[in-house]
Amino acid sequence: MSTTDTGDEGGGGDNDSGDNSSGGGGGGDFPGTIKIGVLAPEPGNDPIGGSIANGARLAAQQLTDDGFIEGTSFEVVVEDTKEDPGTGRTKYRELTQGEEVHMTTGVFTSEVLLAIMDDIASEQTIHMTSGAATPEASRLVHEEYDTYKYHFRTGPINAYELGVNMVDFLDAKREDLGWESVAVLVEDYEWTGPVQDALDENLGDTGVEVAMEQRYASGTENFSPIYDDVEDSGADAAFIAMAHTGTPAIVQWARQQRNFEFGGIHVPMQLPSYYEAVDGACNYAVTQNSATPESEVTEKTVPFSDAYNEEFDSYPVYTGYITYDAVMQYAEVVKELGTLDADEVVTGLEESSYTGTAGTISYYPPDDEFAHDVVYAEDKVDPVFQQWQDGDQTVIYPDKFTTGDYVKPEWIQ
Amino acid sequence: MSVASVLVETAIISALYALVAIGFTLIFGVGGVLNLAHGASITVGAYTTYYVTRVFGYGVGVGILAAVAASGLFGAVLYLGLVKRIQDEPILVMITTLVTAVAIEQVVVVLVGTEEKSIPALLRGNADILGTNVQLNMLAVFVLSWVVIAGLFAFVNYTKAGKALLATSMSHKGAALVGIEADRINLMTWVLAGAIAGLAGVFLGSFQTASYAMGQGPLVLSFTIVVLGGIGSIKGSVLGAYLIGFLEIMTIEYISPSLTGLTPLIVLVAVLLAKPEGLFGRELVEA
């Protein structure tokens, strides 16, 4: 089942709107409605999927209301992937073949993204990923450019660079944090493989001692024995990459008042509602994030999160910022080009440098190993590290975005 | 980690596992059916406490009582509404209870969403036991688990209703001949098993938070523990829980945390091949 928002329902009857390679170039020959297909997991119930859907809705609404392209409205069609590759493929085809959308965005799960890569290639419809981090997608673009060039990753930075970003954070902040030694804890899921590689290759350069390294089983729910080992190792902090197992890990760390600090990439902790959900157990813990509601990553970040909150009565998760940026960047590029022709838009996106809510978005060129992934750099997309402090997502890195200083957990001297 | 720490960690986690598995074994022992909605009872207990404490603002004690009541009621509804009319068809019972479990998951997704929710601990703070950092909440789990186990033994062995339950588990025909109404005993078993599962749900939720899929792990765990200990044997289930807990901690500590979930399954297969009746055989044998 899909949900359609914004604009009129008569897209199929509009001139050219059913032709996703329509336009003809140059003259601003746009259909009455530009249709955006969105793939999101459980958009009605999951904050990550909900933010994808609502980020796209808000972008379409603003583009339509502002008359961004004169005489053209933007319409969003949302489909639920259920985080399942098979469902994702079916829904992708519904969007491209049934709804005949002009571009697609979203996709949170790497497995779903990989499942639709061939469909993206055969449909030759622009897809701008706004959640899945696997570098496997960009590898395909790099190796078989003509086939897979329609895929772009607007965010987050890919999984290998997520690991590099963790190392950069540790390198820059080790003295402020007081983390001279860390215990690396990485959950054993697909997405953490490249993260682990990046940590293995780069962590040694920081001078921080790796007191222990543990890739623990997917589905781990009892962290007590692992935490005993971290304490025995004498590490100042657990340096972590967690998504699926993050919540039991953080709750047990806090409730057991473990004698080490806690930070890295913790996906659930990125949610603005997380402090309330875990009753404050995430207090003092650090995670990487694309943006937080109060951080001025760009001049668009806070206005977007405020507008989102006003519209949907909650703040967006990182996927909301990225999806909003993806739709906005797409709109800007097609407006500049005056066409929806996918091949021309590919070139347009490759040349684009767009200031979004999560940073300045440009893409690695086709000859790069991470072809069409968003560029990770100080003046491009540079994720923030936030610490939960009494219910606030306080940004502690990079320095230009900080909203406060790092605070040690009250039970650690 | 020291040997003492291994033992303390084992005792704590195993007590929780015993609480998780006992209701499952009770229903199989007495009713002769596998309740695949056992995990759903655990979820019902956890989310009842979540609503009572976090949403409505009552204390943890009230939350626990509400969880036990709600899960007990869920057991009753499940038995009277679905299982009673098909209890002679074990496969049908399995399918029905499995569908119920999936339905409960979806209800939670719709009502609460997929975000995990924290449940307040019964006790806050930590204690140092033999050099091991232990949450007071988990100590409470340990004590309560043994209170429940002891209470269950006392109930079965020393009360009239309990003896009727034991008799029914041994022989439905024999029990019927001496005037025991099997349906009433079955209902009592489902309520009791549901209530214990609800209690387990509260503690599981306070240990690792509540999520819509939180019942899946405990269901597999119950299977493993119950087969290991001997299907239908309460004593065997308690021992099975402690063996699984011990194996889990030993695997994490001395082999590799990445094998945590695999070890019990290997043991399960080994037991099924070598000693399919489990360590304690079928204690409550059908005549």
UniProtKB/TrEMBL annotation, chain A:
Keyword Signal: yes
Ranges for region Disordered: 1-45
Alphabetic keyword roster: Signal
SUPFAM superfamilies recorded: Periplasmic binding protein-like I
InterPro entries cross-referenced by the UniProt entry: BCAA_transport, Leu-bd, Peripla_BP_I
Domain Leucine-binding protein, first and last residues per copy: 33-376
Compositionally biased intervals (Gly residues): 9-30
Listed name of the protein: ABC transporter substrate-binding protein
UniProtKB/TrEMBL annotation, chain B:
Any one GO CC term of the record: plasma membrane
Keywords assigned by UniProt, alphabetized: Amino-acid transport, Cell membrane, Membrane, Transmembrane, Transmembrane helix, Transport
Subcellular location: Cell membrane
Signal peptide positions on this chain: none
Chief location category: membrane
InterPro entries in UniProt: ABC_transp_permease, BCAA_transport_permease
Keyword Transmembrane helix appears in the UniProt entry: yes
Pfam families in the record: BPD_transp_2
Any one biological process term the GO annotation gives: amino acid transport
Top-level taxon in the UniProt lineage: Archaea
Bilayer disposition of the protein: Multi-pass membrane protein
Regions that span the bilayer: 12-34, 55-79, 91-113, 134-156, 187-207, 219-242, 254-274
Similarity remark: Belongs to the binding-protein-dependent transport system permease family. LivHM subfamily.
UniProt-recorded name of the protein: Branched-chain amino acid ABC transporter permease
Organism: Halomarina ordinaria
